[in-house]
Please model this.
Amino acid sequence: MYLRKIHRKKDGKEHAYWALVESYRTVKGPRQRIVAYLGEMDASGRMGIKNVAEGKKHHTKDLFEDQEPEWIEVDVRGVRTEHVRDFGDIWLALQLMNRLGLASFFKNALPRGKEKIAWADLALVLIVARFCDPSSELYISEHFYGHSAFEDLMGIPKSDMYNNRLYRALDKLLPHKAALEKHLKERFGELFDIEYDLLLYDVTSTYFEGEGKRNPGAKRGYSRDHRPDCKQVCIALVVTKEGIPLGYEVFDGNRKDSTTVEKIVQTMEGRYGVANRVWAMDRGMISAKNIEFLKQGNRKYIIGTPRSELKQFENELVSTDWQQIREGLEIQYCRSPYGEDEVFILCRSQGRKEKEQAIVDRFIKNIEAGLEKIRTACEKGRLKNPALAERRIGRLLQRNTRAAGLFDIRIKPDHSKLILAWSRKKDRQNWSKLIQGCYLLRSNITDWTAEELWEAYIHLTEAEGAFRIQKSDLKLRPVWHQKTDRVHAHIFVCFLSFVLWKCLAQMCKQSGLGNEPRKVVDEISRIKLTDVILPTRKGIDLRLQCVSKPDAHQKILLQRLGLNLPARLSKNIKM
Model:
């Protein structure tokens, strides 16, 4: 669900509203419907509401002055504004940091020593900057920090912020990864009543700019970023069914997904204990060794299976014993060919079927067009070498692998030219049409219904969504660092920024603002901090750091989230 801004005129006045819109799939494609209207601020909102984390000290509370009136004579013709800078998104990120207890955690984990700037404060800078404007440490020190309200909120002069200091902060932050993950797990449970009964596990990769010679884990492997020319590392992430990150590990770039399962499961159990949890994984994680490992520890699992496994369920595919659980989606409970302690769930999606059919049709069209060109070259005598013709056909099929197995292609010499002929394999084509839109789930949970197992597995999209957010919004990729620890620290900062993102998402969900925080961040980030200069009769200029007044839509969001935006920062500062 997402937010849509609405303006309406009533009785000659303009009113601001938000519409909570839900996207849903139909057989005719995606559709949207309005779930609720979020109207203007109520009386409690206008009077000011309490902080959601009631009883917790506000991170910047001592910066905000009391709202008692102060009177002074001012030359109105000399009033001016200076130094307008970004405020809303940084202020919001710091609120999220406080709510999760990260500021206090860093102060305890990174006690103040002889350093000029506390490492705990620099850790906040790194995480908040990644949340607001993800970029390099050099960009943070030379551009972002000085052009935003960071200096006003943190109290660290811009002259003391430089990239080497931030690099050293990365080094200080990384050793506390395990303790911090445990702290966040407990904090999310307290704030949002998160349950950890279903754990979703997935693997992605992020690539390097440069050769990565100083990082032995940087290797070439299967690239999810479509950059096989670059070295990479693999990142394995564990999240809850709500998408709350529980932990992650970094592996070599050429590591196969299925070989990471045992280490991740043991790491999570060693950190959080062995409990009655269900592990959901995609088909890339399945192997006989992993299945045996999960069974030995009495662990429950729901795993996607390779498409080749569908061949064992040919009778079920053609049967009519399908259960429709929603429009365009059918499932079927199947007996396991491997024993009574497992079940298989056969799923068939109409939308997925149409998509796969369109892909296969496109590849078939490409292959036939390519074969026609090769046949023309053979008939005109331009292509006489059979080995060369076979190589051209091989490259054509390699570019269109999804339909390559559907063709039977023959080449034979005929005097001074080649004859090329092809036909479609009817049995392969019929099988391809039969399994389009189908996928198979495997589980050792025998007391759940087929619908319950499917719904648990489909939460795996939360892990995939976590990777999308980290790569697009938080710019996990590409990695410019070369040292191993710096690379791991960069990934760790991206992970912590994603934690802020999910904290905001849960706050939005609790507040009836849907589950997509992008719109909220975009709206609040438009709030600015401005220096207002007031020339007084006594010849002294007063500089006031004033926060721009939120508009009607921003007020609704702030009220719903339980956030009190300050009108001003600090005390009056004389120039």
